[in-house]
């Protein structure tokens, strides 16, 4: 395979990047609680709050800051207002009163009434109000006559969790109690903070179509080799993407041709590659037949295991690269840390694409710190011959440096000290450095990286993705699988015309047994690690969820 | 299901025996600077795979004990043998491993302490019993629970030199108390 030509010829997928909602968003707990509403004198509003806050401690785990503490009569939800007015008709001067919310944890009602009594509205005629002054009994003055100032407590229902969006806030405001929607509210355990989600989405959008196209190419390679199902994974470093964008901004040339520079590793599915108990693997049994006949059905016994799935393999390629480079960084490390009885998991030979992306070097601008290992490269498994990093310079000022690196084998060049790029706006190129950061450079698992997949990963891989600390995971909606771990709700097609409605009705009539579970594992408040999840919705494609076997495909784990 | 009486189980029963072997693997993990989780796979009353957490050495956060044990087993047995194999693991399998074990059609899982942060067999999710394209498997927790917890406690009072920003833990003391008030330090393995 001419890898570089393959990469050059890739056509990006055309479509949109859409965040996968969290299960809390798609199935909000919508927990409601009981509260009370009391009408008080508008002039004592701040005193009411002080008195309530002093007397009744809040539950810190239930902040309820989304609830308005007061509502004017005209802003009460219709039902609540009707209920209140059926008990106590509106006073003559409604502008003088306001309704305060007493929210959980609910205090003792007698104590509450006594506490609020001094702030009761002047509902009655002056005569009763004056009673304390005409009947001067010491002590009475400070304790208003309860019969004169009565507090009516009206039951109300309130949402205990903040609204997810303005629409929900409006609904609650109209039906329950006035609610504030704060987009910046800390709800990060339930859903990613909107600004973080937006920033990631913006960084992913421009090149996602390319990475997913590459993932499909990797999948095709896996399928054609007979080693696995047609599933592929691509790991991308957003920090390198940012550097490319930055360089492009400085030099003013087109960015899209350099999309592949940020790819750290690719891996295809290899579930048929493993030999078990010394017997030939499924790939060996069906050598030369592609796709592997085992892929026509789901027979767990010949499915290899999830560690051979594309995502897990890609994760291990990053680790493998670090293991190899760690030995170079510190030769003593390997002997001290590697146990004698810990064989590496059996993995197939790397494919052309896998090997190309894992072991190529990147051209580095002079602003970057070069940390290429100073050890003999012979220890590295290099499929593509790399010159000694010391002299590994790719300089051709007439063309785009990244392009030249891509399309031609690296050329030996003078040491960096002698490099002069006269009259070139292109940043000076220093020795090529690896894309993957070694452990000594702070490289740790797949922290802050993105992974692009052809299919929705299985539950095992979804959790493996979290344990590897990825920043985000992206797969095409077309690649959804019933066995997947990331989707949080059925894919809804456009509901523009009657045909769609009919299709929807048809879909809802599907036997409950067929309904998949939606785990939304990328962002679960219960789990310690979270990642951003995105689906890629292709333009022009029919994006109605394909139900595995009904579409002629076996259900399997990707 | 819980083992109500550890001592009954511990006395020479086969479950106790295999869990002791898993704990030994956990101890080995602790000594190698790994999160101390160990496991064994038992097929026809024979241990056919040993596993301990291997994430630090391998620099791969997915190398949990279960995968290591399965890899060892598959060197001598076909995958289908897992259908008649039980796993003994010191800590409840995480979501990743719970799903993997299901995909491998494990027969049953016996674990020590629960994992309320990542557990996939009841701790956080219950993948072992959720409907899926693979059969469910039974899970039995609480076997040598205290010993499994003590292993973890001994690990977590150490400083993690591998972490990007290690947290100083100089003043931490090993907590040897359990909620029921018994102070119990397991014998060293």
TrEMBL record, chain A:
Composition bias type Polar residues, residue spans: 366-378, 396-405
Gene3D superfamilies xref list: Cytidine Deaminase, domain 2
GO biological process: nucleobase-containing compound metabolic process
Comp. bias (Low complexity): 123-135
A molecular-function term among this protein's GO annotations: catalytic activity
Residue ranges of the region described as Disordered: 123-148, 328-348, 366-424
InterPro entries: Cytidine_deaminase-like (IPR016193)
Name listed for the protein in its UniProt record: CMP/dCMP-type deaminase domain-containing protein
TrEMBL record, chain B:
Record-linked InterPro entries: APOBEC/CMP_deaminase_Zn-bd, CMP_dCMP_dom, Cytidine_deaminase-like
Key words of the record: Hydrolase, Metal-binding, tRNA processing, Zinc
Parts of the chain that traverse the membrane: none
Coiled coil regions in record: none
BP GO annotations: tRNA wobble adenosine to inosine editing
Any Pfam family matching the protein: dCMP_cyt_deam_1
Cofactor: Zn(2+)
Record has Metal-binding as a keyword: yes
Region (Disordered): 162-189
GO cellular component: cytoplasm; nucleus; tRNA-specific adenosine-34 deaminase complex
Annotated catalysed reactions: adenosine(34) in tRNA + H2O + H(+) = inosine(34) in tRNA + NH4(+)
Signal peptide: none
GO MF: tRNA-specific adenosine-34 deaminase activity; zinc ion binding
CMP/dCMP-type deaminase domain span: 13-125
Top-level EC class as recorded in UniProt: hydrolase
UniProt-listed Enzyme Commission number(s): 3.5.4.33
Gene3D superfamilies: Cytidine Deaminase, domain 2
Record's keyword annotation contains ATP-binding: no
Family: Belongs to the cytidine and deoxycytidylate deaminase family. ADAT2 subfamily.
Protein name: tRNA(adenine(34)) deaminase
Species the sequence originates in: Penicillium coprophilum
